[in-house]
Amino acid sequence: MDFDTRSFRKALGCFPTGIAVVTVGEGEAAKGITVNSFTSVSLKPPLVLWCLGKNSSRYELFTKPDEFTISILSESERAISTQLASGPDCALTGLPLVETANGAPGIGGALTILECAREAVHEAGDHIIILARVMTFTSREDGAPLLYFRGRYGALKE
Predict the structure, then answer these.
(1) Does the reported pTM lie above 0.90?
(2) What is the CATH number of the domain that holds 87?
(3) How many domains does the chain have?
(4) Across 45-110, where does the E strand assignment appear?
(5) Helix (H) / strand (E) containing 138
(6) Is residue 116 part of a domain?
(7) Is residue 148 domain-resident?
């Protein structure tokens, strides 16, 4: 059977996702990557996951650290998402950052910042699943999420 991966990708685009940025490293060495594969897994223990393509040029950079930070972006942070979405340069230079206890900065203005420790990595086709334990977090009560739907950024409608 010939499986049409292009049509399959288009079909999956019908599921709206939030946008997050995963950051690793400290200070000038800190790097970030935009992901829309983030999801919650468990409340007890507090677990989340995100996925990364095995052929990503950033694979080694984001799979090695034991600790990282996940910032769930607000709708006003589209430019940050775009900047960190592709290309080899994943520097955080010029972005609004907040310090975290684990060293990897959070994105200032994010709806939520999760400080995580890698729990497990699972092979999954052409991607890996990175399971993480949330060690601590901060969250805002206001603001709307940045969404991705059918290959474009979107927003919630009242």
Answers:
(1) yes
(2) 2.30.110.10
(3) 1
(4) 47-53, 67-72, 97-98, 106-107
(5) strand 127-139
(6) yes
(7) no
- Distance between CA 158 and CA 77 in Å, rounded? 20
Question: Is the residue at 51 inside a domain?
Answer: yes
Cβ proximity of 47 and 38 under 8 Å:
no
Phi, psi dihedrals of residue 56, rounded to the nearest 5°? -65, 140
- Give the pLDDT band (50/70/90) at residue 89: confident
Alpha helices in 53-131 (DSSP H): 59-63, 78-85
**Is 3 part of any domain?**
no
d(CA 99, CA 107): 9
Q: Please say whether the beta carbons of 151 and 109 come within 8 A.
A: no
Q: Could you report the per-residue pLDDT of 114-124, keeping only the tens digit for each? A: 999 999 999 99
Residues in CB range of 106: below 8 A, 6 or more apart = 23, 69, 71, 97, 98, 99, 100, 113, 115, 138
Range of the domain at 23: 15-140
Tokens encoding 109: 């203005």
- Quote the tokens at residue 121: 């990595």
Alpha helices in the chain (DSSP H): 5-12, 59-63, 78-85
